Each structure stands twice: as C-alpha cells, then as structure tokens.
C-alpha cells in the first residue's frame, strides 16, 4: 500500500480507537429512604407508555352534581423490565413501578381550535409499586420522595376490588389486556364485572388489531 494511502487509512481509524460505547442503563429498582418513603423515579417519562385517560372517575356522578371546572389527563408509564416480563407472562414481577402523571387539559394552543391537549405543568404524580410481593401506592412530594398511601386508602381498596390483573387496571391498557386474556391471568373479579361486552371504538373499522 502506498505511504500516503496508508497514512490516510490510519488517520481515519484514529477516532474509532478512542470511542467509548455507553454502558446500558441499569434496570430500575424501587429504592426508599430510611423513613420508608419511595425515592421518586426521575426518568419515568423514558419508560414504556401504556395509556392516557381523561377525567376518569370510578364513582357515579350524582344527577344534580355540578360539572367539573377543569379537565385532567392521566398518563401511565411502567418500567421497561416489568413491561417485558408482562408481555412474556401476563403477570407483573417484583420491582414493577407504575407512574401516573396528571396534567391539566388546555384549549386554544397554537393552531388547535377544538378539543383539548395536555398542559406543560405536571399537576400530580403517583406511583404504584410491587415490592416483595406486596403492592403499595405513593404520591410524589416536592422533596423528591413519594409518601405512601395508607393501606385503607380508597385507591388501594378500589384496585384490590376491580383490577384486571393482580391489583393493576390492565383493563385500561389496550396493548396489555389482550396479552392477559391470552395468558389467562385476568382476575375472577374482573371477568365477572366484564361479562357485558365493552363498547366498540366509535363504530370505526380498526386499521389493524393487536394481539
């Protein structure tokens, strides 16, 4: 090989010699303070997105109750390792952490003239954690920790009574409900409550069906 060509090849290869492949991020595991508060995950928005709900309410509204003065979106994320386990088994492993993010609904943003989109500010953040076989709920605080809900809190008792899988509302996660159905991990309580077929998606023909 001519000297000039050899020198050019060497120079082109030099940047590769110093290149460092970033190490993969370690799997997320819930960690706690000495007082038992959950350390709030800071990168939950990089987790697997499951669904969004708007103005969801599990209690029937009284006929004479005034309409709400604002609307809220709920965005649900779960740590990737637990998501992959659920896809394979239809069940949630220890270390599962859901993050439920609340954002206000806003109108007249940019070119949008109808409907609502999500506001920039996070109005609330809750976690649902499975650790050592037990599920618990936490609400995020300003100091970077999340305070546990009492075991008698309505969120806990509601999930225990109506959840589709374990104590999780998989019935609201359209990509995961078919998996739980296929793996036969749906709870008896949910199957009893869902004996009536769910409503169709606005009567439209789906583009494709998920498994």
Walk me through this protein's architecture.
This protein has a domain at 25-56 and 70-108 and 115-150: 3-Layer(bba) Sandwich (Chalcone isomerase), CATH 3.50.70.20. The protein has five helices and seven strands. It has helices at residues 3-17, 80-89, 154-162, 177-183, 188-193; strands at residues 38-39, 48-54, 72-78, 97-106, 117-131, 134-140, 145-148. Strands 1-7-6-5-4-3-2 form a seven-stranded antiparallel sheet. A hairpin with a 2-residue loop joins strand 5 (117-131) and strand 6 (134-140). It starts with a helix and ends in an 18-residue tail after the last helix. The mean pLDDT is 83. This is Cytochrome P460. Residues 191-211 are annotated as: Disordered. Residues 1-25 form the signal peptide. Pfam families: Cytochrome_P460.
Name the descriptors.
Cytochrome P460, 211 residues, alpha+beta, Cytochrome_P460_sp, signal, Cytochrome_P460, Chalcone isomerase
Helix and strand arrangement:
Layout lengths: L2 H15 L20 E2 L8 E7 L17 E7 L1 H10 L7 E10 L10 E15 L2 E7 L4 E4 L5 H9 L14 H7 L4 H6 L18
Count of individual helical segments: 5
CATH H level, superfamily name of the domain at 25-56 and 70-108 and 115-150: Cytochrome P460
Instruction: Please give the CATH class of the domain at 25-56 and 70-108 and 115-150.
Output: Alpha Beta
Shape: globular
